[in-house]
Each structure stands twice: as structure tokens, then as C-alpha cells.
Amino acid sequence: MHALKVTRAEDFPEWYQAVVREADLAELSPTRGSMIIKPWGYGIWERIQSELDRRIKETGHENYYFPLLIPLSFIAKEADHVEGFAKEMAVVTHHRLKAIDGVLKPDPEAELAEPFIIRPTSETIIGDAFSRWIKSYRDLPLKLNQWANVMRWEMRTRMFLRTAEFLWQEGHTAHVDEADAMDETMLALEIYRSFAEDFLAIPVVAGEKPENERFPGAVRTYSIEAMMQDGKALQAGTSHYLGTHFAEAQNIRYQDKDGAQTLAHTTSWGVSTRLIGGVIMTHGDDDGLRTPPAVAPRQIVIVPMLRGKPEDADLKAYCAALAKELGALTVFGSGLRAFVDVKDAKPADKRWDWVRRGAPLICEIGPRDAANGQVTFIKRNALREGEKIKSHTLARADFVAQARQLLEAMQAELFAEAKTRLEANIRADFETFADLERHYGTEDKEGEFKGWVRVCWSRPTGAALEEVGERLKALKLTIRNAPLAQPAAFGKCVFTGAPAVEEILIARAY
RNA sequence: CGGGGUGUAGCUCAGCCUGGUAGAGCGCCAGCUUUGGGAGCUGGAUGUCGCGAGUUCGAAUCCCGCCGCCCCGACCA
């Protein structure tokens, strides 16, 4: 009997919802399209924040903070940018409420002269500041980052994957020229790749987005793409080289060494709470989430087998001492997070709560363990042997000595499992569009696992690319990216038969 | 915003066709029993049946409108 009522195989979207609820990650809020992130889910985000923040600072960036509200006129400054975001904007138009016929409404007499938009991203207001901060080549590069909430009025929302309001980090930088800005763009992409793989145990493919998938206003957009357990792709991070588009629109110029006024080259890059959706769909199983140890808010949870008797006190003391000893250890670069669950509930229920949340190591310690100086535990990533729960027992001193290694091994095992799945499910033997049609079909069962394909193409642009997009759309496919790692020679374009110049990944996507 | 589904207790759902005092299981609370693993027995609490307006003596049930959620499409981190 599994801890969730629905399995991945039966109904993947339902299973996803079940994990979010049963692992106590988040719930819907009264605010349409926005969610309440609960402690276990927010704890994962806090771990993501602190580690990513460290890596961002380590590479020469500083944090700052811009306002939530942006003057409406700002968004209009870059043409592609407006087109990309205008359709999903929340607008603030009044500054006062008034009871009209007993109903509170925006006071018609309190309409703002210029409305504000709630930021969907901050390029425009940050560009405005950059134009004032940057005067000389000596001011460059300018490498800044902010942690913020943003809002995009999405038609259809899904917990963590696409919500109207979401949390993210947005890096914005300015440079003297394209070469320097491109170095920065690729640096950010590499930060995301290594972070996703090392810390979230999510293997990804880093590459460049095709022209039609670029960020509005970008010259080049790069992404990391992860494979979910239903074979669909999740864009888990993006990095953009913006060229001089925003510099032109907002007059970001510096005086170069020869005294000339020169346009700066800018970049922007971000990852969001969507990463948590990626963690769920990469590592979850039919018993709930398996939280990668590096981001688990609690890495070792100790459940004492309390029986409501006097000897409980000894058992609690034993568990508290064990937690303290574990807490003094260091793992993944910070203090080990151990927790004793003394909630007045049945031990079996507590165990399953932690299984669903995906605490990496769950210790179940009874009086006999305490008396013998041992620790009985289950490993969340290898919970079962057949249908039965597999438990392990170690002498207490050995458990403490091995705790760090157990967590590191689990992190590595989760990554290896996902990496194997990714590599086993990218087909690279398709040469024509007919091969794609045969593989993905049009009549296939909804949600059937299809994986990704890696094919050659001639990189058409403009109308020709539009047509490629339409043909793929008929199969519910999109081009994810052109991986950075490319072979030396190419075959023929699957779309046109012309000589190819690049390999691309094609997949169904979130 | 278009197509499909759905909305009844904290959760999963029955009841609706054929109108007549609101149900089950799980969970929750209390007591007792049990105690190395998702326990048993007994008792108990919990609902403006998504919202609004109709038809009717009477609406969870029929009609109309609106809204939320889920899936698909369009759009996107």
C-alpha cells in the first residue's frame, strides 16, 4: 500500500497535485492563481535561496531591491518587451476605496494620473536606474541581483509550475561590449546548470533557445531543460543576452576610454519557485516526495516510539541527544538539520507524514534501540524492498559517523537515477519529420511517456521557422534548445532536408 | 479566452435522472483497550450541498446566470 492514493502511472497530473498536498508543500489561496507556500515547501525554497545566493555573490554580484510597482509608461519602452508582457499584466489604478451603495469600490475620485503595473519582471525599471548609475566605462561591469516576487496574469495556473504570483531571483548586469555580456550570460547559465545538478539533483541540458522561444526583447536566450518523469521538459532556468535593446530604449550609455558615448550591453537571468515543481516531478514517487538531502528543510527526522509511559522520558532524552550530536555535523556546506518529532501523535502516522514529505532519513527509535545504543532508520530514496518497508539498524556511534555519508550518497543516488532516465529517453536516431510523427503520433494515449528527441536542423528563421513551429505544434511539440555540446558534423535537417548546422532537442513541455 | 469535466463535512465521494427534514468511508475530538510499526472498540462534533436569481407548498436535486478547480488548446518561468 502506497502513501498516495494515485500513482504516477495512473494519472501523472493528479499524482503531482497529490504530492503538493500530501507532502504539505503548498495549497491554493483565496487569491486566484496564487498559492500559499507552506513551511515544508518554503523551507525548500529557503535552501534554494541561500545556496544560490551564495553562488551568485561568489561570482561577483551584489543584491539590491526594486519596487513592486512600475510606472505603466516604463513597460512601453521596449517594443518586443511590451508585446510579450502586455497581455498578462496586473494594473494598479486607484489609491483609495470608497463605499458606494454599501459596496467597497475603488474611489472614482482617487484614480491615479499614471497607473502602475505590478512587475512581471524588472528590466524596465532597472534599466531606468542603470541609465543614471552608469556614466563611465569605469562603472562597468555592473552586476546586480534581486530576490523578489513577480506577477503575470496567467490564463492557466499550476502549483509551483505556473502561478500568477511567484518568487524568483532576477539578475541584471551591464557590460562594455557583447563579448563581456555574453561571458556573463554563459556564467549565469553555468551557475544554474551546476546548481540544478549538484544541489537539486536534477540533471539538465543547457542550450540556446531558438529565435521563436526567446525572451521578449532578448538577442539570445539560453535555458536549462530538465526531464520530468512523464517525459515532458521543464524549463528550469533562463539566461538572456539583451544586446543593446534595453540600452537603446532606456539610454544606458557610458563614456568609453576615447570619450565617446557608447551603448552598454545588458543581460538578465532568473530561476523561480518553479524549481520546486521540478524537484517534485524529478524525485517524487508513489509514496510522495523524495526531497534531495541538500535542500531538505529537515534532513534527518527522529520519531521516538513514545508509548505514553514513564520510560518515554528516557527515550526522548536519547533522541534529543542523538539530534544534538547530528546537528553538530556539517553536510553540503552547512550544519546538518536534524529534528526530533515529539508531536503527540501516533508514531506510525508521523512516520508516514515524513515519508510523504520526503525527509531523507527517518529514524524510528524505540526503547530497545535506546537500551542497546542503536538507531533504526529508513532511507527515503530506497524505502521499500518489494512492497515492504526496508529498515536498517546501526550502532548509534556508527550512525552518527556515517550520517553525512548516507545523505551525500542519497543525493548522488537521486541524481544518478534521474540522469539515467534522462539519457535513456533522448532518442537521437530520427532523420525525418515522418520519424517524429511516427514516434509522437497524434492519437497517442494522453500522458504516455515519449521522452525527448535530439535531431539535426538547418536553423531556419522568420516565416520558415514559424512553419516548423506549426508542424511541431500539431504533435504538441516544441523546440527546447540547441544543447551547448554539439557534434563536429551534422546530417540533414529533419524539417527541410537541407544540410543541417545544429542539433536541437524537441519535446513536449510544461 | 475556446473545448471537456467537476463543485455536497478537513479529505475521497454517494445522493441529483424520478423534488419531500443531509449521507458513507477516512480524518478529527473523548474514553477504554493495544503498543517495534499506517491498531481495536464505544461514544461524539463538524455542512448557508460553490454563489446568485427563478419554478414550486417544498430545491443538493429542475431552469437561468455567474464563479472556482482539474484536463486539453492558445500563452508563458
Fold and architecture overview:
The protein contains 14 helices and 29 strands. Helix 2 crosses helix 6 (178-198). The structure holds one RNA strand of 77 nucleotides.
Oligomeric form: single chain
Q: Main β-sheet: number of strands, strand sense, barrel status?
A: 11 strands, mixed
Structural class: alpha+beta
CATH superfamily of the largest domain: Bira Bifunctional Protein, Domain 2
Strand content: 25-35%
Key features of this structure:
single chain, BirA Bifunctional Protein, domain 2, 5-stranded mixed beta sheet, 29 strands, 34% helix, alpha+beta, 11-stranded mixed beta sheet, Translation Initiation Factor IF3, 510 residues, Rossmann fold, RNA-binding, 3 domains, 14 helices
Provide a brief overview of the structure.
The protein is of the alpha+beta class and 510 residues long. β14 (253-255) and β15 form a beta hairpin.
Topology (SSEs and partners):
Blueprint: H1 12-22, E1 26-28, E2 35-37, H2 39-58, E3 62-63, E4 69-71, H3 72-75, H4 79-85, E5 91-94, E6 97-100, E7 103-106, E8 111-118, H5 123-133, E9 142-151, E10 165-175, H6 178-198, E11 204-208, E12 220-227, E13 233-243, H7 245-250, E14 253-255, E15 261-263, E16 265-272, H8 274-283, E17 300-304, H9 312-327, E18 330-331, E19 334-335, E20 338-340, H10 347-357, E21 361-365, H11 367-372, E22 374-379, E23 384-385, E24 388-389, E25 392-395, H12 396-424, E26 426-427, H13 433-440, E27 452-457, H14 462-473, E28 478-483, E29 502-507
Parallel strand pairs: 3-9, 17-20, 17-21, 26-27
Antiparallel strand pairs: 1-2, 4-8, 5-8, 6-7, 9-10, 10-16, 11-12, 11-28, 12-13, 13-16, 14-15, 18-19, 21-22, 22-25, 23-24, 27-29, 28-29
Helix pairs in contact: 2-6
The chain binds one RNA strand of 77 nucleotides through residues 1, 3, 5, 13-14, 17, 21, 28, 32, 84, 87-88, 121, 150, 152, 154-156, 158, 161-162, 166, 168, 215, 223, 234-238, 270-275, 305, 307-309, 346-349, 351-352, 355, 364, 366-369, 376, 389, 391, 446, 476, 510.
